[in-house]
Amino acid sequence: MARAKLAVKSLLGSSDGFSMDRRALPGLIAGLAGCGLAVLGAVAGSPVLAVLAAACALGAGGSVVLVVDRLRRAERHAALAAVEATTLREAKAVVPQAPSPLVDPETGLPDGRFFELALETRVSAARRHLWPVSVVLVEVTPHPEHRLPDAVAAFNALLRSTLREADTICRLGPRTFALLLEDTNEAGGVWAAERLQAAVATDAIGARRLAGGVAAYPTHGLTAADVLGRARSALARAAAAAPLHGVGVVEVATIDALHRD
């Protein structure tokens, strides 16, 4: 309801005076034309005018839908930008004396401290905007003949080229990486993990296994700590399981796990 009010206000007016988004003008003209044709059709009893009125109405509706969709996307991008800025401010405030600025020196990715702060902020934003957030933890195991630093560097490059720009990538440990996926449920998290596994299987990065654990807000927890805890448990199960095929197992946190963990 709030978004609908925002869209109508943005299309037709503002508190400072009447104004109109020019992108909505074709829809308004089509709507007015449709009303006129409908009246003429009713008076003259002409089915042709009725069909033209319906076409104008469809054009008006489509135009308005496109404008509202653009407004919704702009609102979402603004919200994500605000989340990013808030996360960085919180990071600087919480660890002002940290020896490194929340960055893993080997990969250049944010570290686990940044991930926890980012997850807390993302969950708060998701609670306000009613969209899901997924946490995907992956553990890479290099081939015995490959050095871990080389495999990590290659996997880091693969992560950057495979995931969306809006996704947050952090390094939690020597072989563990965390992905924070905006507006994504657990099914989308599994898809992201399996996409990485497929890339590992076809790319010579020196990885033998890639296990994944997925948890999502609000399905698997209502707080950042709960979601991260369920994702860690899912990753532990995936890492302990023997892969039946492919390069590893992807485990999803379950509702029952909320009572067992």
Name the features.
5 strands; 5-stranded mixed sheet; disordered N terminus; 2 domains; Alpha-Beta Plaits; 261 residues
Explain the overall architecture:
This protein is α+β, with helices and mostly antiparallel strands and 261 residues long. The chain has two domains: 2-81; 112-260, 2-Layer Sandwich (Alpha-Beta Plaits). It is 57% helix and 13% strand. The chain is built from eight helices and five strands. The protein has helices at residues 2-12, 25-44, 47-94, 112-129, 148-162, 186-202, 224-240, 257-260; strands at 133-142, 168-171, 176-182, 207-217, 250-252. It has a five-stranded mixed beta sheet, sandwiched between helices. A hairpin with a 4-residue loop joins strand 2 and strand 3 (176-182). Helix 1 packs across helix 3, helix 3 packs antiparallel against helix 4 and helix 5 crosses helix 6. It is elongated. It starts with a helix and ends with a helix.
Q: Quick check: average pLDDT?
A: 76
Order of helices and strands: HHHHEHEEHEHEH
Shape: elongated
Based on helices, strands and strand pairing, what is the structural class?
Answer: alpha+beta
Q: Using DSSP, what is the number of strands?
A: 5
Helix content: 55-70%
Low-pLDDT segments: 1-20, 88-99, 257-261
User: What is the domain total for the residues?
Assistant: 2
Strand content: 5-15%
**Termini separation (Å)?**
38 Å
CATH superfamily of the largest domain: Reverse transcriptase/Diguanylate cyclase domain
Instruction: Assign the CATH architecture of the largest domain.
Output: 2-Layer Sandwich
CATH fold-level label of the largest domain: Alpha-Beta Plaits
Task: Record the strand order, biggest sheet.
Answer: 2-3-1-4-5
- Largest sheet, if any? 5 strands, mixed
